[in-house]
Design a protein that fits this description.
Elements lengths: L14 H13 L4 H4 L11 H16 L5 H10 L6 H12 L5 H33 L4 H17 L10 H17 L13 H7 L7 E6 L5 H15 L4 E6 L4 H13 L3 H6 L7 H13 L2 E4 L6 H9 L4 E7 L14 H19 L3 E6 L23 H4 L2 E6 L1 H4 L9 E9 L5 E8 L4 E4 L10
Parallel strand pairs: 1-5, 1-6, 2-3, 2-4, 4-5
Antiparallel strand pairs: 6-7, 7-8, 8-9
Helix pairs in contact: 1-5, 1-6, 4-5, 6-7, 10-11, 11-13, 14-15
């Protein structure tokens, strides 16, 4: 297989645009502030031009005046040119090409476009070489290719510095509308279907990583699926993506039908469904079919593969991953579980931010709570925690006292949702009702406990 040589390709660039940008800055040094936040030396194709702009940037950052004399000396000193005379001659030549202030940005646009095209060519070469080497696994290669392309795209997406005035106006107008209509302020994120929890964490906030953790048997998956169905039902226009690494798609949907149709799990498995329950089951099925819930039950999936699948699904409103401990890591951290979990949670947080969606990830807890008198979980109980606590915006623990104290029959349906970390608000305990027969959580809206009181 022949190698793809960059030297065989006519790389896109514009010498004229490069000279126009540099010459304009020499003629009017203040113009560098118009392009310094969007251009780097790499945006220039010719090595000489890269060197000149690099020197200009250093002088700008250092507070030095950019004039032809000082620029000539600095360029000669940094070996951009072979001699001072050569530097002076070339810089004077391009300074004569100075354009109007309004034009430098249009020439910067040209440099940016050519730079992106070159980066795509370089990325394509690297992908081609890896694909033909025979040493890369297809899954790893796909992840690498998507990351390279995404890096090129994301490098262009910069919001810049904006004055706070329009944001202040928006907030004040929103508060005035709330006051005038005597309506409660809306939570900032998608509703979880649990109103009190939404009030505490301000809904499922975009770009946030929400961790649901508990000891086995507490109902993590049920709680997460209840949230997924609630979110899909309330937010009809948004797609809910569920990645089930532990249960098959049919098992997960069966659990949803059981919960929504109020059919006990044993009846769902043996098919002995009471006659008076069939209508509820049909209605639950009809409701679920009308939602935008998508389920992927691929085992041994990586965060990169999850991200790639989400990019191909438009209008995603929520991502649920069951569970964090089964996500695969390929590469240098493979085998070191703490390092793996650190990489996973960091990448999940980056994914949430890049896609601007809330990501719910389920996690197991260590046996620490079982050895304590008070068995309510603590952040230190997160298994192989690594940077889990640091990367998560919200950490929710599920605790059912009846699980440990079977004699307390009055607590059989009680559950505590402990908000152990809340980047946007307080830590507290939200009471829930657990109906184990239907693997269903419901709200207890009359109160919630605030440890600060």
């Amino acid at each position: 297989m022949a190698e793809l040589e960059i030297s065989d390709i006519n790389l896109p660039y514009s010498t004229d645009a490069e000279q126009m940008v540099l010459g304009s800055i020499i003629a009017d040094p203040d113009l560098i502030s118009k392009v310094s936040d969007r251009l780097t030396p790499e945006h220039f194709f010719r090595e000489t031009h890269k060197g000149i702009f690099s020197v200009m940037q250093k002088m700008f950052v250092g507070g030095s005046d950019i004039n032809i004399v000082s620029l000539t000396e600095r360029c000669a000193r940094e070996k951009v040119f072979e001699s001072t005379e050569q530097a002076k001659e070339y810089l004077y030549k391009i300074s004569m090409l100075a354009v109007e202030h309004s034009s430098i940005e249009s020439y910067a646009d040209v440099l940016d476009e050519k730079f992106v095209l070159r980066e795509l060519i370089y990325a394509s070469r690297d992908i081609f070489e890896k694909a033909t080497s025979g040493t890369e696994e297809p899954a790893a290669l796909l992840e690498y290719a998507e990351r390279r392309i995404y890096d090129i795209r994301s490098s262009k997406e910069t919001s810049g510095l904006l004055h706070i005035e329009p944001t202040v106006v928006d907030i004040l107008q929103h508060l005035m509308r709330v006051a005038e209509n005597r309506e409660p302020a809306q939570q900032h994120g998608m509703s979880s279907g649990f109103p009190t929890l939404d009030k505490v964490i301000f809904g499922l906030m975009p770009a946030s990583l929400i961790l649901i953790a508990a000891r086995p048997g507490m109902g993590k998956t049920s709680f997460a699926m209840n949230i997924a169905v609630n979110a899909a039902r309330i937010n009809r226009g948004k797609k809910i993506a569920v990645f089930s690494l532990e249960m098959s798609r049919s098992q997960l949907v069966e659990r949803m039908l059981s919960s929504e149709g109020k059919i006990d799990s044993e009846s769902m498995k043996n098919g002995l469904i009471p006659q008076d329950r069939w209508m509820g089951l049909y209605e639950a099925g009809e409701m679920l079919m009308q939602t935008q819930i998508y389920v992927d039950d691929t085992a041994n999936i990586t965060v990169g593969e999850i991200k790639a699948k989400l990019r191909r699904l438009s209008d995603v409103g929520l991502v649920v991953i069951d569970y964090l401990g089964l996500i695969t890591v390929k590469g240098r951290n493979s085998g070191n579980r703490v390092a793996e979990v650190t990489e996973i949670t960091r990448n999940l947080k980056i994914m949430a931010k890049e896609l601007n969606v809330p990501v719910i990830a389920l996690s197991q807890l260590s046996r620490g709570p079982d050895a304590r008198e008070d068995k309510r979980p603590l952040l230190s109980d997160l298994r192989d925690s690594g940077s889990v606590e640091q990367d998560a915006d919200v950490v929710l623990f599920l605790y059912r006292d009846f699980y440990y104290n079977k004699e307390k029959t009055d607590h059989i349906n009680s559950c505590e949702c402990i908000v152990a970390k809340n980047r946007h608000g307080k830590q507290c305990t939200v009471p829930l009702r657990w109906d184990g027969e239907y693997t269903r959580f419901t709200s207890v809206e009359d109160r919630y406990e605030d440890p600060g009181r």
